[in-house]
Amino acid sequence: MPIVKLTKRAIDALVPPKAKQAILWDTEVKGFGLRIMASGIKTFVVQYRNAEGIKRRMNLGRFGVLTVDGARDLAKLKLAEVIVGEDPADKVRQVRKGMTVSEMCDWYLEEARAGNILGRKNVPIKTSSLDLDESRIRTHIGPLIGNRIVKHLTIAIVEQMQTDVKNGKTAKPRTGGRGGKATGGPGVAGRCVGTLQAILGHAKHKGLLDTHPTLGAKKLAGKKRTRRLSTTEIEMLGKAIAYAEANGENPVALGVLRTLLLTGYRRQEGQAMHRSWLHPDRGYVMFPDTKGGAQIRAIGPAAIRVLEAQAEIAGNPHLFPSAVGHGPFTAVSDCLRRVCGLAGIKGVTPHTLRHTFGSVAGDLGFSELTIRAMLGHASQNVTQDYVHIDEALKLAVERTSNEIERLLARGAEKQRALQLAA
C-alpha cells in the first residue's frame, strides 16, 4: 500500500484487501503504520530493527480504541526505546508469558487470521477452521478457564475443563442465527482440548511460553459416526423427496440434497460449488479448496444431471445460489430434516449421506482404498493432468451414483403411484 500521512480520514477510507492483510505506512514517523486485515480489523503497528539488526513488528492497539495521534505518540516512545538499545517487542513478549488463557486465545485468533501462524502442511490456517476454534473458545474454553494464567495451567485443569464440557456445564443457546443449543458432549470436549493444546503449542513456538504447560493431557475420543441409510431407507427418502417436490419444498434445497446423496461430497463442498468448477465432459469437479486442500473429484452422470438442471442467477457463480446476495444456498440441513420427517427416518445428518455413498460403494465390491479416493480422502492433486484422472475411479463413482439414483427413483415411483391412486 502507498505511504501517506496517517489521518482518521485516510484510515476511514481504507478498503480491506481481498485476502490476508495490507499495511499503510506513515510519512511522518518512519516505522509507524496501520495494518488492515481482510476482515476489516485495523491495528496500529510499529516496525524497527533491534540492536542485533533483527526486524521486529509489534501491535500498538486497534484503531478506534487508539486515536491516530495517540498511536503515533506511542510509536515514538517505542522507537525511542530502540534508540537506547532496548527491544520493546521483546518486553511485550516477556509480559505475555503472564497472559491469561483468554488473552492468549485472543492473540492466537488475531495472529492466525493475519496469516502469521501456520497450520498443517505449513500453510496459514483456514478461516473455516479458525471460526470453529473461535466458537469453542467463546462457548467453552473462555467461560471455564479463561481467567487462569497460562503458565500455571496443569494437565489436571485442562482435563477437568474437558469433563465440564462433556457434562454440559457450558451448554447454552447458539447465537449468530444458528438454532438449537450448544450442549457439549465427549466429541466437543475432546476438540476443545485439541484447540487449546494447539494454541499453547503455537505460543511456545512463537516464544510466548518457555514450555508447553499441559503437554500430555488426554483427549476424549469422539463417538465415531457410523450411521448410513439402508437400501430401504434410500427408497423411503426418494419417496419423501418426490412428495416434498410436489408440495412446494425449495427446489434448490432438494438439488443440494440429491447432489450429496449422489456424490458423497461434504455438505459445504456440495452447497458451495461454483459452475466453473464442474467439467461434465470430463466427469470431474475441480475444487480449489477442501478439507484436504485443492482436489479433483470424480462425479457421475446422475449427479451431473442434477447440477445441470439447476437454475442460474445472474451474477451468482454458485450452482446452488442463495435467493439473496451472491453467496451459496446454506440450509440443506433444514431441508434434510423436513424430508426425513416425511420419510419417518431418524438420526440422519448431511454426513450420513456421505457415509451412505461410501457404504453403497462397499456393497458394490469396491475396495477401501478406492472408496477413500471417491470421498476425497486420498490424494487427487490438482497438478494432475485432468485427462488422466483414474478411469477406474470414475467407473466406481458412476456405478455407486447410478445405484443410489436407482433406489431414489424406485421410491419416487411409489410416491407417484400413491398420487395416481388417490
Q: What is the gist of this entry?
A:
This protein is α+β, with helices and mostly antiparallel strands. Helix content is 47%, strand content 10%.
Annotate the secondary structure layout:
Blueprint: E1 3-4, H1 8-12, E2 21-26, E3 32-37, E4 42-49, E5 55-62, H2 68-83, H3 88-96, H4 101-113, H5 127-145, H6 155-166, E6 172-173, E7 181-182, H7 186-205, H8 231-246, H9 251-263, H10 267-271, E8 278-279, E9 284-287, E10 295-298, H11 301-308, H12 332-343, H13 350-363, H14 368-374, H15 391-421
Parallel strand pairs: 1-2
Antiparallel strand pairs: 2-3, 3-4, 4-5, 6-7, 8-9, 9-10
Your description of this structure?
There is one protein chain. This protein has 422 residues and is of the alpha+beta class. The chain has three domains: 3-88, Integrase, DNA-binding domain (Double Stranded RNA Binding Domain, 2-Layer Sandwich); 101-205, no CATH class; 231-421, Intergrase catalytic core (hpI Integrase, Chain A), CATH 1.10.443. Helix content is 47%, strand content 10%. It has 15 helices and ten strands. The protein has helices at residues 8-12, 68-83, 88-96, 101-113, 127-145, 155-166, 186-205, 231-246, 251-263, 267-271, 301-308, 332-343, 350-363, 368-374, 391-421; strands at 3-4, 21-26, 32-37, 42-49, 55-62, 172-173, 181-182, 278-279, 284-287, 295-298. Strands 1-2-3-4-5 form a five-stranded mixed β-sheet, with helices on one face. Strands 8-9-10 form a three-stranded antiparallel β-sheet. A hairpin with a 4-residue loop joins strand 3 (32-37) and strand 4. Helix 4 (101-113) runs antiparallel to helix 5 (127-145), helix 9 packs parallel to helix 13 and helix 14 (368-374) crosses helix 15. The longest helix is centred in the C-terminal third of the chain and has 31 residues, at 391-421. The protein is elongated, with a radius of gyration of 26 Å.
